Amino acid sequence: MFESSSIVVGLEIGTSKVCAVVGELNAEGSLNVVGLGQARSRGVRKGEIIDTSLAEEDVRNAIVEAEHMADVEVRSVYLGVTGAHIRGFNNRGVHPIVSSDREISEDDVQDVIKNAKTINLPAQNHVIHAIRQHFLVDGQDGITNPVGMLGARVEVDVHVVHGNFNRLQNAIRVVKGLQLEVDEIVFNGLASSLALLTNEQKELGALVIDIGGGMTEYVVYADGVIKHVGALAVAGDHVSNDLAYGLKVPLGRSEQLKIEHGSAIVDGSIKGQTFTIANELGMPTKTVNLEHLRRIMSLRLEEIFQLVGQDLEQQDLLDYLRAGVFLCGGCARIPQISQLAERVLQMPVCVGKTNSISGLKSALDQPEFAGAIGLVKYGSLQQRRRVGKASFTDGLRSTINQIFKRS
Q: What span, in angstroms and rounded, lies between the C-alpha atoms of 298 and 267?
C-alpha cells in the first residue's frame, strides 16, 4: 500500500465514460500511473451532469475499480470539468512598486497576480484558472520572474478560464456525495494538454484538441504558455446521432457502425461498397452503403475542425502553431482523422501520446485517457509546489468548500 501523500487521483466525469486514474509520485518527483478505473457514463450530457444519482453510481464504480487496481483508498480527487459555458480570455494586472529602493519583492508579484485576477465577471461565474503568462517591468516584456529586479511598475499577463458557478458545482456535489474531497477543479482541455505536450512543443506553439463523446475542448500554447482555450458542445455523440438519422438505424447500432466501419475520410476506392446488418427484431436485413456512412461522419468531423479553426483565426493564433496539432479523446481513434484535420487546419496533425509519465501501458497509449492522466499530472505538479507548504492544501480545500457553500 502506498503512502497517501504520494498518491494523486484524477477523475473525469465524461459524457460516454467516467474515468479515474491513480498516480504515484515518488521521492524524485516522477509520476507513475498505478491504477485505472472506468464505468460507462449514464448521467452526463454534453460534459455536464443531468442525473446526479446515476452519475454518482458511475463515479463510485470507476473509483472502486481504480482503488482495487492500485491497492489504495482514494480520499480526494483532482476533478476535470467541462461544458459549453467555459470560456477563457487574456487579462493584464498592474501594480506600482512603492518601496524606497524600487526592488520588486515576492509580495509585489503576489499583488500584481491578485490584481490580474480581479475581473468583472458576471456574478454567476467562477474563475477556474488564472494562468500566468509573462511579467512586464516598466514596459519590458517577456520576463519570467521579476523578483529582485528594479522598477517602478510591474505588470502580469494571465489567461483566465471561467465558467458558470452552479454548473461547476454539480460535478463537485457528485464527488462530495461519495465522501470524497475535491483537491481542485481543472478544465479538461488543460489537463489533456499537460498529458500530451513536451516543454519544447509548448515553446514552439501547439494546439491540443480533445474530442470526446459530448464535448470538444481545445488549448493553444505559444512561447511556452497558454494563449487560448475553448469548449464546443459538438463531438462524438453528434457523429453517432447523424449516422442514426442518415442510415435510419437505432442509436446503439449507429455507435457500433461508427466503430466497426467508420472513417473520417471518404476514399474513392469504396465507391459502391455495401455491407448488410441483421435487424434485431426479426425484421429483414438492412444494406448499408459504406461511402454514405463515411460521408456522414466526415462532414460532422470536418465541422468540428472548422469551428476550432475559425476561432483560432479570430484570435490570430494560427501562425504560432509551429509544433502542429495533437488530437486525443475517444474520437482520436477514428481512422484517418489526422488526415482530415490536416486538410481543414492546413498544418501537421497527429494523435498525441502521453509524455514524461510511466506506468500502465494499457492506459498511457489510449487517446481517450489523456484527460484523466493529465488531471493526475496537474495534481502532481501542484503537490510538488506544495512541498513544505502544508497549510496551502488546507487553503485550497477551504477554497473548494467556499465554492461549494456559496449560494
A: 11
The angle formed by the CA atoms of residues 134, 139 and 140, to the nearest 5 degrees, is 60
Q: Note the pLDDT tens digit of each residue in 307-354.
A: 999 999 999 999 999 999 999 999 999 999 999 999 999 999 999 998
What distance in Å separates the CA atoms of residue 84 and residue 238, rounded to the nearest whole number? 15
**Residues 254 and 340 reside in one and the same domain:** yes
Tens of pLDDT, residues 88-129: 999 999 999 988 888 999 999 999 988 888 777 888 899 999
Alpha-carbon gap, residue 347 to 224, rounded angstroms: 19
Residues 133 and 229 in one domain: no
Question: Is the four-CA dihedral 255, 53, 78, 206 of positive or negative sign?
Answer: positive
* Cα 315–Cα 317–Cα 318 angle in degrees, nearest 5: 125
Q: Which of these three, 163, 189, 213, is where a domain ends?
A: 163
Do residues 210 and 195 touch, judged by C-beta distance below 8 A? Answer: no
pTM: 0.91
Task: Tell me, yes or no, whether 368 lies in a domain.
Answer: no
> Which string of DSSP letters, residue by residue, matches 120-183?
---TTEEEEEEEEEEEEETTEEEES--TT-B-SEEEEEEEEEEEEHHHHHHHHHHHHHTT-EEE
- Please report, as a single letter, which amino acid is at residue 213: G
